[in-house]
Amino acid sequence: MHTANTFTSPEAMALMQQRRSMRAFLDRPVSQPLLEQLLTTARQAPSGGNLQPGHFWGVQGELRRQLTDALLADFHGQAPECEDYAYFPRPMPMQLRKRQVASAQALYGALGVARDDRAGRDAQFARNYRFFDAPVALVVSIDSSFGPGGYMDLGMALYGLQLAAAAQGLGSCAIGALASYPETVRRVLGLSAEHHIVCGLALGWADASAPVNQARTARAPLGEWFQMLG
User: Fold this and answer.
1) Integer Cα distance of 188 and 204 in angstroms
2) Tens digits of per-residue pLDDT, 201-223?
3) What share of the chain is helix, strand, coil (3-state, %, to 5)?
4) 0.90 cut: is pTM over it?
């Protein structure tokens, strides 16, 4: 007899379908026990050989301010990017470029920022480096010896963390922009070169009234990326 569990329940399916990136948060702290519970739950993600790659660094207080200030200085100074890994394909295929543009249109459209408003777009992008003023700021790294499989496993843990947060009523947003300045992140946090910077993560109680949190992006239809063979 089949035994029902939370992963087959309609509530769990709805949670995965409704999860969105949140970029505005309430001034309400997230308790340390709750954060640790979310991280522990995220580590239940599948992992080849149970290696569990990746490290999560909670950054707070004066150190967080120093990190934000350093990253904003890089961003506004247009410092050259020196990522530890390639995120986007180069060159970007037109099909993917269209998705990227549509995503930006959804975000800046929700904010009322026009396409030609460079200052407005830069101001919003700069909020990445403030972790969107979320109460919890995480930096995610991976040992430099890992190949693509390690990033795959870490990605599943990151998604698990975001789902666990959503299940507790919290919002989150992964911050790929942090990977643009890995040397700065390592310098400020005192990390060695073996720690490749993957992303940041903002986490907290989402501000449901904030226009930026009304942005919605569409996912590609099933037929574009799934086919039955044989």
Assistant:
1) 23
2) 999 999 999 999 999 999 999 99
3) 50, 15, 35
4) yes
